[in-house]
Design goal:
By secondary structure, the chain is mainly alpha-helical. It is built from eleven helices and no strands. The chain has one domain.
Length: 225
């Protein structure tokens, strides 16, 4: 499974996750849980981008520029759920990328882990999409990039910690189990990743991300009013 296929799956499931806010009648099991698949795949692709990019400064630049461009569409879209005082997912991925580089470049690992922890906490303070969990997911994808077994186990543990922090584990229900399963499910695609890029699509996600939010917001205005 190539990066291109993972990217298509991630974009498709992201739309599934978001469409229920624009069109409430689409709120069902599929849009509620299959949408959980998207973010971990994007987090994994950031780590692959870091490893394979030929120009890290340009990589940072693309993320930052489109994070800024996407913020206004993101805030309009988030008004549909009444929560728009937060930063979009590209800022989450940007913090994750910074955490990866700090860990990779600082030789004293105990210091690098402290710095990574502060960056993860910064994700919580700045209220980026997915918060500290999102930044930690990106870092975890890099930390265990060469050991898929440990990545699978540690990511499952991270999900449990996240669910506990959101008070989902105090009364375990089927919805909690579904959330855990579908949040972990992207690991299957990551395990099947063949190390190949596939079809080149450098700008696809950067354009698709704000464009799909604008489209869904316009659809909501015309259909719901």
């Amino acid at each position: 499974m190539s990066i291109y296929i993972l990217k298509i799956i991630a974009c498709f499931t992201m739309v599934l996750d978001h469409i229920k806010y624009a069109i409430p009648s689409t709120n069902n099991f599929i849009t509620m849980y299959f949408g959980r698949i998207a973010f971990p795949l994007f987090a994994f692709m950031i780590t692959e981008g870091y490893i394979h990019t030929t120009n890290l400064k340009k990589y940072y630049g693309r993320l930052l520029i489109f994070a800024i461009i996407s913020q206004i569409p993101f805030m309009f879209f988030r008004t549909l759920v009444g929560e728009y005082h937060m930063l979009n997912i590209l800022f989450t991925l940007l913090l994750g990328l910074i955490a990866i580089q700090c860990y990779d470049k600082i030789q004293k690992k105990y210091f690098s882990f402290v710095l990574v922890a502060l960056i993860i906490y910064l994700g919580h303070i700045l209220k980026v999409d997915y918060g500290w969990f999102g930044v930690a997911t990106v870092f975890l994808m890099y930390l265990f990039k060469y050991n898929k077994l440990w990545l699978s186990i540690s990511y499952a543990g991270l999900i449990i910690i996240y669910l506990y922090s959101r008070n989902f584990l105090y009364t375990i229900q089927m919805s909690t189990i579904y959330t855990f399963v579908f949040t972990w499910l992207p690991m299957v695609g990551i395990i099947l990743y063949n190390g190949k890029q596939g079809r080149k699509s450098k700008w696809f996600f950067y354009i698709f991300y704000p464009a799909h939010m604008i489209a869904l917001y316009v659809i909501h205005i015309f259909m719901i009013g």
